[in-house]
Amino acid sequence: MIPQVYDSPIFRMACQQFDLVADFLEIPESARDRLKMPKRAVSVAMPVRRDDGSTTVFMGYRVQHHLTLGPTKGGVRFHPDVTLGEVGALAMWMSWKCALTGLPYGGAKGGVTCDPRALSIGELERVTRRYTQELIPFIGPQIDIPAPDMGTNEQTMAWMMDTYSLQSGHCVPAVVTGKPVSLGGSLGRKESTGRGVAYLISRAMDTLGINAQGATAVVQGYGNVGGVAAASLNRMGLKVIAVSDAFGGLYNPKGIDLAKLDEHVAKTKSIVGFDGAEAITNEQLLITPCDVLVPAAMERQITGDNAAKIQCRILAEGANGPTTPEADAIIAQRPEIFVIPDILCNAGGVVVSYFEWVQDLQSFFWDEGEVMSKLYRILEQAFVQTINFSRKRGVSMRFAALSLGIQRVHEAKQMRGLFP
């Protein structure tokens, strides 16, 4: 039974994934709700003064999934569709992601229901500071460490850190990650998720014997993750033949000039109108023939309706939850598609967030080469463990990754016991 406060398509999807894995791992019924249900959820109404003098009440959320392995960790998104159920599902996936990569965290996620593009810089700052103020009893370097997500960035984290530090009476850089480097952020953090996606694609191509030179890639979501992943794949020798953002898509079978596209995006804030490719819809983009498909936008993009139509060799999930369970069942019948599941594929961001947290706690910082070397070592270990589990147990890569993450949290809870 899903509590009504979390009930939403995406939370039901996360629970469905968990239930399938729990059956496979033979986790006792008595332990399942303790593993699945979020430990803590905060919902706040935030009155914010607008530039015109009016007041708008925004809704803010933060969900902490489990506290068994350490403080919780997860992003903060500003988006019109943010709900408590969505945040709860993302927090659950973050738990399995942290456990899969061996990080000493439970999963968390937060968000504000707003359209950041419709807010001025001043309004964004007031929303961020009010949200942080409301969460001060629930966050901290040893409690819960927020990070950027969709609609937020380094500036958002700087405001959050400043608000928390003012209440503490001293600078607390370790309260958030994804900060500007000048405020205690880590070199490589901004690019870490996209670079991690590209690294794991490279490992999958090695596994399948695909030559990067001349291979093709399609990227849905040309933002921080998708944009960095596209550029990294381009440097590896792949042609990026299609990209999209929230406003539209582009296609050029000869390959899109990403440097010129980035100049266009810097001027217009969108890929739409770029003259180096033809316009296509999001639906067309997802079924474009390619070697690598990278969904790096919103959840639930590959569904039972289009899963049979996608034409790729590697499905690299840069976004959280882009593939529904119905689509998974279809893709499982298509052995030609190698899936790099989200909790592995986009783990680079939380891994380098962990590095940033460690550096802040020690006040000792690493150069970018050291950061990236450590990141790739952790991703390599997680990739090898996942593919070995998949082959040994005869299950999909998603099932293998979820099994490893869920089993580790389950074992930790069993070892700690139940108080009192």
From TrEMBL:
Keywords: NAD, Nucleotide-binding, Oxidoreductase. The active site is at K109. Belongs to the Glu/Leu/Phe/Val dehydrogenases family. This is Glutamate dehydrogenase. NAD(+) binds at T193, N224. GO terms for molecular function: glutamate dehydrogenase (NAD+) activity; nucleotide binding. Substrate binds at K73, K97, S353. It comes from Prosthecobacter vanneervenii. GO terms for biological process: L-glutamate catabolic process. The record marks D149 as: Important for catalysis.
